[in-house]
């Protein structure tokens, strides 16, 4: 056997997964649509040329253990894949469709794009494998012409129709069965000359002949064999053309895996009893030599590589067509086009161009492991999708084939384990490529026509977190952030405070718009509020909205606040503009009195008619006279929320901040200054100016350094006349703030 053939097989790509005939007028049953293509992808070139080498290195027990471990990993993936296909209407693209419907187009595309390229490159790998096998039988034939001839034949079959490709695969299946019959006849006519007591149960792992037998390990042998067990997605990709996909995919896939496992196990026992370990590790064609008649085995070897190349040529365009159909790729409309019979001819042409270009490179051994990694990442994601769905426990996940959660979890762990055993370097490269593609697709904001489970995933995480928090202390000062509740009667009035609300809430806070609609305006107000909510979100602030229909402002607002107080993510600050009528003042007093029991902070905004918010460069925080009690403790009175809001605005505006107070008794000035300086130090608000004056409060307010916003405390019994006076005296817009008792500037 030529050395190039052994090198080629050493780096062989995994079996194709996406043989996806799409004849719109043809429906396939379990045998033709699932079982046959899956079986052909597993009984491939490694079975013919590497099973003996595995047993020779690892011994019979070690070889059987490697076979069992590889098939256990792919069987877990097949069970996960079978389960999910009985729960969704799987579309074109096979694994891409499964992942996209669960985790979104971005995740599906990040796996689907590399998977498509891997399948296209796998065609070239299989053609090279076929050529080496052909040259072993006909060494005088020109290598490039063999490659080109096989490519033309495969491309012509795939371009004609997927149905023709499947008819060809029936013939290949017969050839492979014939090769196994030749082996079986040999076993029955005396080829097994070594008894079980004479064979080596655990090998010495000498390695490969082309390297001079440098030695290897159990996991090194596993890495060579593992690709043989892959190739289980053919049935899932055929779902649109199956008569009964929900029963055909599980039965056909699992049946093919089971029969393949039996075949590999039987071959391992036959080879161990038919040749010595030295022969097994040094002669890759031992299966041909020990068969009853060698030519059928050679034909089976050629048929295996041809079948895998044909399956990839049929399957890869289906993935490309599906990617184009969702505009994951540029020019998606062109590659997603199909003929009247459902054939993705444009995608086939693109794939054929890629294969032809890579044929000219003549050697893809360097990237063969990367192809394997992309297949394993795909299998990992399929297992992860099922494990996620099972963990979320959503009602929408009710597959007809139920599997234990341990199976999907074992599939995830097993596939990741196999990746890093086969080739750690290429595993990291493949993961980096997938993450990079995901980042690019995330920027494109793809729109899917199907829902996914991402929202359910985040809701489940939020519910879990809420349950954990409910068992902790009710005091959450360290986790405080501004979550504003903003009553809205007129969207036009809210636009005037939009930027202030955004600057208070950003970046981690939120805004809840509570529409208070009269009997005749709810729908109009709802649409206006939804537009404002979208505007907040575009500005990077999480916002939500709801509308309460009623006729009494105070009653409607109180009911809304009380209803929201039971929510886990409840608002903690009620934001209101200063009232402009006596009737509205009465409403405010009623609301604020009722809110005293809801432990919600309050911020009343008084807009200066001329200055508005100004240049957002100066903030004054006014502290009431506390004489003679200037002692600092964790309870600093109604000062926590004013300081926290001032700090938020200072940071978002990059502004200068002052804390000011006016004492009646000049002898209290020193104590007042010490108090304010200590508070700013404990509150970790450096570069904050402290101003302490003595005398008449109103006079010093009007003479204080100019600010763009002044913040005052809000008394339990609000004095609206005082608020209007301060707005005039400061020549600036003002916030009048009352603590909820749930925040702390010193925490």
Task: Note the quaternary state here.
Answer: single chain
CATH superfamily of the largest domain: Amino acid/polyamine transporter I
Number of E-state strands: 10
- Strand portion, in percent? 5-15%
Low-confidence stretches: 1-24
User: What is the topology, as strand order, of the major beta sheet?
Assistant: 3-2-1-4-5-10-9-6-7-8
Q: Give the count of structural domains.
A: 3
What structural category do the secondary elements indicate? alpha/beta
Please summarize the sheet with the most strands.
10 strands, mixed
Give the helix proportion (percent range): 55-70%
Roughly how many Å apart are the termini?
Answer: 76 Å
The best one-word shape is elongated
Number of helices: 29
What is the class of the largest domain in the CATH system?
Mainly Alpha
Compact summary:
This protein is an alpha/beta fold and 747 residues long. It has helices at 3-10, 30-42, 45-49, 51-85, 95-103, 105-137, 143-160, 162-188, 218-225, 234-237, 245-274, 277-282, 286-290, 294-325, 332-335, 345-359, 368-392, 405-422, 424-443, 454-470, 491-495, 498-505, 522-538, 553-564, 582-595, 640-653, 669-682, 697-703, 720-729, and strands spanning 483-488, 510-517, 542-549, 573-577, 601-606, 618-623, 656-663, 688-694, 709-713, 733-738.
Q: How would you describe this protein?
A:
The chain has helices spanning 3-10, 30-42, 45-49, 51-85, 95-103, 105-137, 143-160, 162-188, 218-225, 234-237, 245-274, 277-282, 286-290, 294-325, 332-335, 345-359, 368-392, 405-422, 424-443, 454-470, 491-495, 498-505, 522-538, 553-564, 582-595, 640-653, 669-682, 697-703, 720-729; strands at 483-488, 510-517, 542-549, 573-577, 601-606, 618-623, 656-663, 688-694, 709-713, 733-738. The chain is elongated and about 115 Å long. The chain has 29 helices and ten strands. A ten-stranded mixed sheet has the order 3-2-1-4-5-10-9-6-7-8, sandwiched between helices. By secondary structure, the protein is of the alpha/beta class. The chain folds into three domains: 3-443, Amino acid/polyamine transporter I (Up-down Bundle), CATH 1.20.1740; 475-601, Rossmann fold; 607-747, 3-Layer(aba) Sandwich (Rossmann fold), CATH 3.40.50.620. The N and C termini lie far apart (76 Å). The protein is 58% helix and 9% strand. Helix 5 (95-103) packs antiparallel against helix 6 and helix 8 (162-188) runs antiparallel to helix 14.
């Amino acid at each position: 056997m030529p050395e190039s053939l052994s090198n080629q097989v050493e780096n062989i790509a995994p079996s194709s997964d996406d043989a996806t005939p799409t004849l719109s007028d043809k429906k396939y049953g379990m045998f033709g649509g699932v079982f046959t293509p899956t079986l052909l992808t597993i009984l491939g070139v490694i079975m013919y040329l590497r099973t003996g080498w595995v047993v020779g290195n690892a011994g019979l027990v070690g070889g059987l253990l490697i076979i069992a471990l590889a098939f256990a990993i792919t069987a877990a993936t097949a069970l996960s894949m079978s389960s999910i296909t009985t729960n969704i209407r799987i579309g074109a693209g096979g694994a891409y469709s499964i992942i996209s419907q669960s985790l979104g187009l971005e995740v599906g595309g990040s796996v689907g794009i590399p998977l498509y390229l891997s399948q296209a490159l796998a065609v070239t790998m299989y053609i090279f494998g076929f050529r080496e096998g052909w040259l072993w039988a006909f060494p005088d034939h020109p290598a490039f012409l063999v490659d080109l001839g096989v490519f033309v034949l495969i491309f012509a079959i795939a371009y004609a129709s997927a149905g023709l490709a499947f008819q060809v695969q029936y013939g290949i299946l017969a050839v492979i069965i014939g090769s196994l019959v030749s082996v079986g006849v040999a076993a029955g006519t005396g080829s097994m000359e070594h008894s079980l007591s004479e064979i080596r149960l655990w090998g010495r792992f000498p390695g490969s002949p082309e390297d001079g037998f440098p030695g290897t390990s159990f996991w090194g042998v596993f890495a060579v064999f593992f690709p043989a067990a892959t190739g289980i997605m053919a049935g899932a990709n055929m779902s649109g053309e199956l008569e009964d996909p929900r029963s055909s995919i599980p039965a056909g896939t699992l049946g093919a895996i089971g029969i393949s496992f039996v075949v590999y196990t039987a071959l391992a026992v036959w080879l161990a009893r038919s040749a010595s370990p030295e022969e097994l590790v040094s002669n890759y064609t031992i299966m041909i030599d020990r068969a009853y008649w060698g030519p059928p085995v050679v034909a089976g070897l050629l048929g295996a590589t041809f079948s895998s190349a044909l399956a990839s040529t049929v399957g890869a365009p289906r993935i490309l067509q599906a990617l184009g159909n969702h505009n994951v790729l540029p020019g998606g409309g062109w590659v997603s086009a199909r003929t009247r019979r459902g054939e993705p001819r444009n995608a086939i042409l693109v794939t054929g161009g890629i294969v032809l270009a890579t044929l000219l490179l003549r050697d893809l051994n360097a990237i063969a492991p990367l192809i394997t990694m992309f297949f394993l990442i795909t299998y990992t994601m399929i297992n992860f999708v099922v494990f996620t769905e099972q963990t979320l426990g959503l009602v929408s996940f009710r597959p007809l084939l139920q599997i234990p959660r341990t199976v999907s979890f074992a599939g995830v762990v097993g596939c990741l384990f196999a990746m890093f055993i086969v080739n750690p370097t290429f595993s990291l490269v493949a993961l980096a490529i997938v993450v990079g593609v995901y980042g690019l697709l995330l920027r494109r904001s793809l729109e899917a026509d199907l829902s996914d489970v991402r929202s359910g995933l985040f809701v489940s995480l939020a519910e879990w977190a809420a349950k954990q928090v409910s068992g902790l202390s009710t005091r959450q000062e360290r986790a405080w952030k501004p979550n504003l509740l903003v009553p809205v009667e007129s969207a036009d009035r809210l636009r005037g405070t939009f930027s202030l609300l955004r600057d208070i809430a950003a970046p981690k806070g939120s805004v809840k718009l509570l529409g208070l609609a009269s009997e005749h305006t709810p729908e109009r107000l709802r649409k206006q509020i939804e537009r404002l909510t979208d505007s907040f979100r575009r500005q990077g602030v999480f916002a939500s909205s709801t509308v309460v229909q009623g006729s009494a402002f105070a009653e409607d607002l109180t009911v809304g606040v009380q209803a929201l107080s039971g929510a886990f993510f409840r608002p903690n600050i009620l934001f209101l503009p200063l009232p402009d009528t006596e009737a509205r003042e009465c409403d405010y007093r009623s609301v604020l009195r009722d809110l005293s029991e809801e432990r919600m902070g309050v911020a009343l905004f008084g807009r200066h008619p001329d200055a508005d918010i100004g240049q957002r460069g100066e903030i004054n925080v006014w502290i009431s006279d506390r004489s003679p009690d200037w002692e600092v403790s964790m309870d600093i009175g109604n000062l926590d929320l004013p300081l926290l809001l001032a700090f938020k605005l200072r940071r978002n505006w990059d502004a200068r901040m002052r804390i000011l107070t006016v004492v009646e008794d000049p002898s209290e000035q020193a104590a007042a200054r010490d108090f304010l300086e200590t508070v700013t130090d404990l509150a970790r608000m450096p570069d904050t100016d402290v101003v302490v004056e003595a005398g008449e409060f109103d006079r010093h307010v009007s003479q204080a350094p100019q600010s763009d916003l002044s913040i005052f405390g809000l008394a339990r019994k609000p004095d609206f006349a005082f608020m209007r006076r301060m707005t005039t005296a400061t020549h600036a817009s003002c916030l009048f703030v009352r603590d909820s008792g749930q925040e702390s500037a010193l925490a």
